[in-house]
């Protein structure tokens, strides 16, 4: 099988608007969560979010283009710009038909839908923007990136809620490994820190209502009581190894395995027995041609909800057996909040850098031990460690599970 490596990365997220600044913040254990500033939260119980900060879409992607994009597409294009520049890929020298794009979003252009619906109600629906539909649909981040860079291979968007960008990365990995493309631009984006989305998740009782940023997104902590909404994007450029070597590309790490399946259990709750998640991780490791004992670190889905964290812990125990207690298992959502369809991509970037630098991120702001979450969650302080194989989990509403196996490139 063809080997697949990561050669470029880009991100916009609550910690920073570049990869290296994000990694510096992760190593320092910074928290990107704070009071919501995008709108007035007076009528809501939820007061905190992981907002993108100091982001000027007009400056990054141009004022004309930015006006014709929903915020989630703006984030995706900004991250793609960094990732393509980082990769050093020269599309004028590439066979565009062998370069594809899979960029996902769990929800898509919800802010645009809200704005244009309000305009239609107030002024009549003949007055809504002609850009309403292309701005709001969930595939447009992938489409815009493909147009910007001339990517003429497979271009699509996977929509599997919070598993979306892991599926995007995994599907892209298989496309290259199986010979369909040589280069894929992949990841996810989300931009729904808006009243309708916060209100909807609040009504489900899925969101944390704490007003203390340091006790809000607290994965695996006994006092956890909901996730914190985040926003942003993560984009990776991945390519076939020999293709990367031929053009002298720097290589961050290798993607070696991908597993995906469904709990087929409930529209929002994970299977409390963790069976789907356990099988998904095992599928990913098998796809990599590795043993379960080869895995050193898991970047957990770790949302800070009661059901997810306990269920994911149980899933890891079922998948890894006794080796589960030798694993380091942290959740970087403690720093970023939950970026929904962008979560897996941002966490994939963090996992890649953990392999590169031999540093395992912490689960910050951890205080109260939960007997149901008794693995080594790397509490509060990151850890220097020689890790060769890492796994990143993403679990989504609808029972979607997706796991990616990353390996240090040698």
UniProtKB/TrEMBL annotation:
Pathway: Lipid metabolism; fatty acid biosynthesis
One Pfam family this sequence matches: Ketoacyl-synt_C
Reactions catalysed according to its record: (9Z)-hexadecenoyl-[ACP] + malonyl-[ACP] + H(+) = 3-oxo-(11Z)-octadecenoyl-[ACP] + holo-[ACP] + CO2; a fatty acyl-[ACP] + malonyl-[ACP] + H(+) = a 3-oxoacyl-[ACP] + holo-[ACP] + CO2
CC annotations in GO: cytosol
This protein's record includes keyword Lipid metabolism: yes
Source domain of life: Bacteria
A GO BP entry: fatty acid biosynthetic process
Active-site residues annotated for this sequence: 162
EC number: 2.3.1.179
Single GO molecular function: 3-oxoacyl-[acyl-carrier-protein] synthase activity
Entry function: Involved in the type II fatty acid elongation cycle. Catalyzes the elongation of a wide range of acyl-ACP by the addition of two carbons from malonyl-ACP to an acyl acceptor. Can efficiently catalyze the conversion of palmitoleoyl-ACP (cis-hexadec-9-enoyl-ACP) to cis-vaccenoyl-ACP (cis-octadec-11-enoyl-ACP), an essential step in the thermal regulation of fatty acid composition.
Family membership: Belongs to the thiolase-like superfamily. Beta-ketoacyl-ACP synthases family.
Protein name as catalogued: 3-oxoacyl-[acyl-carrier-protein] synthase 2
Lineage of origin: Bacteria, Bacillati, Bacillota, Clostridia, Lachnospirales
């Amino acid at each position: 099988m063809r080997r697949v490596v990561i050669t470029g990365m880009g991100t916009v997220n609550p910690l920073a608007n570049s990869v290296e600044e994000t990694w510096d913040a992760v190593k320092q254990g910074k928290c990107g969560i704070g009071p919501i500033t995008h709108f007035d939260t007076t009528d809501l119980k939820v007061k905190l979010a992981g907002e993108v900060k100091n982001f000027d879409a007009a400056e990054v992607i141009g004022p004309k283009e930015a006006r014709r994009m929903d915020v989630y597409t703006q984030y995706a294009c900004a991250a793609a710009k960094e990732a393509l520049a980082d990769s050093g890929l020269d599309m004028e020298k590439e066979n565009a038909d062998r370069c594809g794009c899979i960029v996902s979003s769990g929800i898509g252009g919800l802010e645009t839908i809200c704005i244009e619906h309000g305009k239609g109600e107030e002024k009549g629906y003949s007055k809504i923007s002609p850009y309403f539909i292309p701005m709001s649909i969930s595939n447009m981040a992938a489409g815009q990136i493909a147009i910007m860079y001339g990517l003429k291979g497979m271009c699509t968007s996977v929509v599997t809620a919070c598993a979306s960008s892991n599926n995007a990365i995994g599907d892209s990995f298989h496309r290259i490994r199986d010979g369909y493309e040589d280069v894929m631009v992949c990841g996810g984006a989300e931009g729904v820190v808006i009243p309708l989305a916060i209100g909807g998740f609040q009504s489900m009782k899925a969101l944390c209502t704490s007003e203390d940023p340091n006790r809000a997104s607290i994965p695996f902590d006994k006092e956890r009581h909901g996730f914190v909404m985040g926003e942003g994007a993560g984009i990776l450029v991945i390519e076939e190894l020999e293709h990367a070597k031929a053009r002298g590309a720097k290589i961050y790490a290798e993607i070696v395995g991908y597993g995906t399946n469904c709990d087929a259990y409930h529209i929002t709750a994970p299977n409390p027995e963790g069976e789907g998640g356990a099988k998904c991780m095992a599928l990913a490791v098998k796809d990599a041609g590795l043993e379960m004992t080869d895995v050193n670190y898991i970047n957990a889905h770790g949302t800070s909800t009661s059901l997810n964290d306990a269920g994911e812990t149980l899933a890891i125990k079922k998948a890894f057996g006794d080796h589960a207690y030798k694993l380091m298992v942290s959740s970087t959502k403690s720093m970023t909040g939950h970026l929904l369809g962008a979560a897996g991509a941002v966490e994939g970037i963090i996992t890649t850098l953990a392999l590169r630098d031999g540093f395992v991120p912490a689960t910050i702001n951890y205080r109260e031990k939960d007997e149901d979450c008794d693995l080594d969650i790397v509490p509060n302080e990151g850890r220097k460690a020689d890790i060769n194989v890492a796994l990143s989990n993403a679990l989504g509403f609808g029972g979607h599970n997706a796991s990616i196996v990353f390996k240090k490139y040698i």
